[in-house]
Every structure is written in structure tokens, then in C-alpha cells.
Amino acid sequence: MNRNNKFHRVFVMFLIILVISSIVGCINQGDKENDISPARNSLIIGVTCPIFGFFPWMESYDVTTMMINMNIFNSLVEFDQIFRTKPKLATSWNNPNNITWRFYLRENVKFHNGYNFTSEDVKYTFDLIKDNESHVLRDLLVSVKEVKIISDYIVDIITEKPCPVLLNKLVDIPIASKRYVEETTEKQPIGTGAYKLVEYVPYEYVKLERNDEYWEESEVKNVTFRIIEDDEEMKNSTIAGEIDIASSIVPRYYDEISNCSGVRVGCCNHPTVVFLSFDFRENDSVAFKGEKNPLSDVRVRKAIYHAINITDIIDNVLNGSNFAEPASQFVSPMIFGYNPDIERLPYSIEIAKELMEEAGYEEGFELVLDCAEDAENLKRVCQLLQTQLSDIIDVKLNFLPIEDYYMKIMSRNSSSYTIGWLAATGDGGEIFDYMIRTVDQETGVGTYNLGYYSNPGVDRIGENVSHILNPEDRLDLMQEGFRIAMDDVAWIPLYVPKCVYAIAEDIAWEPGPGGRIVVEDIEFKQ
Hints:
Elements: H1 3-18, E1 42-47, H2 63-72, E2 77-79, E3 85-87, E4 90-97, E5 100-105, H3 119-130, E6 144-151, E7 154-159, H4 166-170, H5 178-183, E8 195-201, E9 205-210, E10 222-227, H6 231-239, E11 245-246, H7 254-258, E12 263-268, E13 272-278, H8 298-306, H9 310-317, E14 324-326, H10 349-359, E15 366-372, H11 376-389, E16 394-400, H12 402-410, E17 416-422, H13 429-436, H14 456-465, H15 471-487, E18 492-497, E19 499-504
Parallel strand pairs: 1-10, 1-11, 15-16
Antiparallel strand pairs: 2-3, 4-5, 5-7, 6-7, 8-9, 9-10, 11-19, 12-19, 13-17, 13-18, 14-18
Helix pairs in contact: 1-12, 8-10, 13-14, 14-15
């Protein structure tokens, strides 16, 4: 995967949750020029990040880009509200053997331009992604060996080895029209989804209209995704009633918006973990050239962990426990693989100092912590970390513009950094494959292992987790792998943020934990 494209997945996925805004007063909803009516059929949805292209030409695997694209396209399967897979373009499936998934496709489906959907389109889409080494979705299909067409509406997906989470990965594979992509030069997205593109102005909005040939009904006829990167503008637009759904509201404005008529504000659990991580290389590290990297010593990493008062961070940066909870490991309790036996290391400056002395760093050392200056919440977290860690080390904050920040950490050129990870597949196996297995650029393993963490035991477990089919055995092994990696302090987990949203009162819908808005599921109150 091309490095310039890869970083978007990480940066936008947590940016939606972590940014901050300022205050204005309420505006009476009845004063709007276009007052809300129960008979209306249009929506304006505020999103905090721009879209980076349309499938199959998109340049980023981030929440906003995927969300908008998946309203235009369908995948073979999709998630329900608790990360269970359910049919979409595939009506059913089975396993003729342990490396073959046979999908029975929905018939009489047409793309937006009238072309018929068949097995040819499934095979073409998979081959298109797999054959493009820089495609942002290629990592999802590394386990797929080939796609065989059995008939117009039956297709076999054959994996290199048993792949227990193939369905989870296919949720994020939109299906394109073979005929259209081969003949087009316009790069206009043509899918089978419930909505089709009408107008797109980069960094401003995306307008969609209902696909009336869709196999299911939807109450929403027109929807505009309005891109509002400034958090004060998002809050103001919500209060003024200029948007019907705000996908992300800053927690400290929860009460203010709640006091306004015509809008309701809520929180939902979110499977993102925000964490602190490091350059693990003992020699040849970024910041300690010609000398041993103190961060390669697990005692130093544990000392830093013990010196972090996560309750202080949640209370003083994130507006309290209603909006975030302490993280203890790589995934939240919503994700398969979570180990309930793993607990946070307790906050204790005394233990931290003892560990530093034992490691030979009783005088501490200087550490540069890279921070994204544009993400206000995370910026404040970094500032508080600097204060908390001053008892054992001298932390220098390096604030960078958001894109420079992500280019730096994706280049593996950072000694320490904070970031958030959304387990988009709903399965902890992606943490092994992407984050904590030893970096192997040929196979794509460790793509986001940005500090070169490496443990042979974790590697063995990660390899097995990728192929064990029995869910109980797989869960046990995954939980053991997480325990080993947490004993290593492969990350220092900080917190799990909650998704804060605002919705017009006449909308009968609640967002799910994955952070995406599926417009066809939205209904209006009668």
C-alpha cells in the first residue's frame, strides 16, 4: 500500500472523535427559513472530515470516505449494530471446504447506470484491488488467493489458508461494475447502493439522491454530506438547525446543545482505543543514535505507564467518564478478542521511579513526543502527558500540522506519538496483522506497526489467529497474545472515547458503534 495513501486511514478515523470547538447560544429551531416538517424527505448530515475520492479510485480507507462510498455501493455483506455480518449483495453463503467461501448473489440487481450485477463484477472488483499494490483496500484481501465464477449468481472466494474473518473484511469491499470501470474515463462512482452521486464539491459537500431501482425502500430521497472541519462551525450549524445530523460533537458542548430545542444529543460506545506508543528499536532508533534506546527496555515503558494518571486526563481533557473510559488493552470490550483479565497498570509515581532506577535511568532522559496540533483534544492530552511524565523523564512536545504529523509517524520516524485505532473489522485479529506482528513489507504484515515492536511469541499467535476456524480456540489464543503484548507494553492504552452526536428531533434513528451513517436505515417520525 502506498504510504502517502495509508496514513489517511489512521488520521481520519480518530480525528472524527477527538477535535474541539467553541461556544455560541441557542437559536430557536422554529426560526429557520425551511422549518422541519414530518413530511420532509431530505437530510443534511455534518461530517468532520473530507472525502478522499470514490471507489474504486479512492485514496483513503478512512471513516468518512468509506461511509459515503458505502451509501453509493454495496458489499457482499454488511455489519449490523453489534458487528455481526448480514447479507447484502450476497443473500447467503457456505463453506464447501475450509478455504472456500461460496456466495449466492442477489439477482435482478442493477448498477445506477442500468448495467446488470453478476458474478463477473465480484471477480473483477477483487482482482482490481488485489492487482493494484497501492490500493487502499488491498490489505483486506491479502488472504484471498482467487475468485472463481460458478454461475452468473454464484461465486467462490478461495483463500490461501483458512480465514475465519473473511466476512468481516468483505464488509469494506464495495462491488464495482466491470463493464463501467473498463469503459469510463470520468471516474464517476456507479454502484448498486441505495443512493447515487448527484454533485461533489471537494472539501465542501457531497450530494446524493435515492436510487429508486433499489431493492429496499428508503424514506430519505436526498441527502447532503456537508463537510465541516471546524468544530465551532459544526456546533453552530447544529444549534442553528442547518444540519439534521451532526456525526461528531465535542463532549464539552454536550450540555449546551442539549438545552436547545429541536435537537437531541446522545453518546454511543465506539470501538476506538487511543494510545501512546514508541520506537522500540534498541539500536539505530530515531532519537538515540549511537546509544541504547531507553524505550527498548520494558521497565522504562512500564515506568511511563505507571506515571500516567488516566483519570486526570479523562476528567480534565475529555469532560469526564460520561464521554470516555480508561483503556486497558488494544481493543475495546465491543471487539472480538478483548481480554477481560487484562487490567491497567496502576498510577504510581513511586513504582515508576523504582523501575527507572532499576533500568539505570534514575536521572531520566529527554523524549520527544510528536503531536498533531490540529486535533485539539489530542493536543491537550499530549500537554497533560508532558506534565505527568515530568516526574521521571523530560518530555519535549513537537507539534506538527496534521498531515506532516501522520507522514512522520507513517515513515516510522517518530520516537513517541499518540494516536487512535478503530478496529473496523470488529475483530481483534487486525491488531495482530496491522499493529503488533513484526513488520514484513512483502506480506503486508505490521503495516501500522510504526515503532518496529517485535515479539516472536506474539508473531506465532498472530499467525495462528489468522487461520484458526474454531471461534472459542481463536478467542483463547487471541486473548493470550494480547496478554503477552500488554506485558511487553507494546502500547500504553489511554482511553476509549465515546461518540457524541446530535440529531434533529423528528428523526427516528440512532447511530451505531462503527461510526458510519447508513442513510437507507434512517426514518422520520410520523
